[in-house]
Automatic annotation (TrEMBL):
Gene3D superfamilies assigned: Alkyl sulfatase, dimerisation domain (1.25.40.880), SCP2 sterol-binding domain (3.30.1050.10)
Coiled coil: none
Domain annotation Alkyl sulfatase dimerisation: ranges: 2-83
Any one GO BP annotation for this protein: dodecyl sulfate metabolic process
Alkyl sulfatase C-terminal domain boundaries: 91-206
Signal peptide: none
Pfam families: Alkyl_sulf_C (PF14864), Alkyl_sulf_dimr (PF14863)
Cited InterPro entries: Alkyl/aryl-sulf_dimr_sf (IPR038536), Alkyl_sulf_C (IPR029229), Alkyl_sulf_dimr (IPR029228), Bact_Alkyl/Aryl-Sulfatase (IPR052195), RibonucZ/Hydroxyglut_hydro (IPR036866), SCP2_sterol-bd_dom_sf (IPR036527)
Name by which UniProt lists this protein: Uncharacterized protein
GO molecular-function terms, A-Z: linear primary-alkylsulfatase activity; metal ion binding; protein dimerization activity
SUPFAM superfamilies: Metallo-hydrolase/oxidoreductase (SSF56281), SCP-like (SSF55718)
Alphabetized UniProt keyword annotations: Hydrolase, Metal-binding, Zinc
Metal-binding keyword on record: yes
Length: 206
C-alpha cells in the first residue's frame, strides 16, 4: 500500500485515473488494471477507480481462453464492485475431508501447520486407525509436518480410533471416544501449532 500511495502521490490521482480510462478506452485492459491497481491501493474508497478497474478485469475475463483466468478476473471485478463477500459454502467440508485417503489427510493437516510457531517443535505422535487396521506415525520438526505408515517406538503419544476420529484429531478437534496412550500434552502442543484459515479474504483490494 505504501508503494501505491507514493506512486499516486508522485503522479497525481487524477492523472492516474485519466491514464487508466485512456488505456481502457484503447482496449489495453491489462495496463488499465495495473494503473488503477495503484490508485485503488492508495485510496481504497475511490469509487470511480474501483469501478473502472472492475470494468477492465471484466473485459480481461471475457477475453480469457482458460476458465481459471476467467474466474480470477471476474472474481476480481466482483470484489471491486461489491467488496469481499462471505463464502457461501465450505470447500473443506466434513464429507470432503473424510473421503481423503489417510496420506492425503496428513498432507491436509500439514497445510494448517503454522511454520513459524512450529519452528522449534519436536513431537512425534502415533495413530492406530481401527476401522482400517492401519498404524501411522506423524512427526513435527523444523516447522514441517511429516507422516509415514507404520509404528514408531519413539512416539510419545499414540491415539487410537476410526479414520473419522483421526481427521478430527489432525485438525485440532476434540474427538469423543478416541483412546490415547502416553503424554497427552503432546496433543495440546500439536493443536497450538495449527492455524484456522479465514476463507473471506481480499483478492485484489487492500
Amino acid at each position: 500500500m505504501e508503494t501505491a500511495r507514493r506512486y499516486v502521490e508522485l503522479i497525481g490521482a487524477e492523472k492516474v485515473l485519466a491514464e487508466g480510462r485512456k488505456a481502457f478506452e484503447a482496449g489495453d485492459y491489462r495496463w488499465a488494471a495495473q494503473l488503477l491497481h495503484s490508485l485503488v491501493f492508495a485510496d481504497p474508497e475511490h469509487r470511480e477507480a474501483r469501478e473502472l478497474q472492475a470494468d477492465a478485469y471484466e473485459q480481461l475475463g471475457h477475453q480469457a481462453e482458460g476458465p481459471q483466468w476467467r474466474g480470477i478476473y471476474l472474481t476480481a471485478a466482483k470484489e471491486l464492485r461489491e467488496g469481499v463477500q462471505p463464502a457461501r459454502f465450505a470447500t473443506a467440508s466434513a464429507d470432503t475431508v473424510l473421503a481423503m485417503p489417510v496420506d492425503i489427510l496428513f498432507d491436509f493437516a500439514a497445510v494448517h501447520l503454522a511454520g513459524d510457531r512450529a519452528a522449534t517443535a519436536d513431537l512425534r505422535i502415533g495413530f492406530r486407525i481401527t476401522d482400517l487396521d492401519e498404524t501411522w506415525t506423524m512427526w513435527v520438526r523444523h516447522g514441517v509436518l511429516n507422516a509415514r505408515k507404520g509404528a514408531s517406538g519413539t512416539a510419545g503419544l499414540t491415539v487410537a480410533g476410526p479414520r473419522a476420529g483421526l481427521a478430527g484429531v489432525l485438525l485440532g478437534q476434540d474427538v469423543p471416544g478416541a483412546a490415547a496412550e502416553g503424554d497427552g500434552r503432546l496433543l495440546e502442543e500439536y493443536r497450538a501449532l495449527l492455524d484456522a484459515f479465514d476463507p473471506d479474504f481480499p483478492v485484489v483490494t487492500p
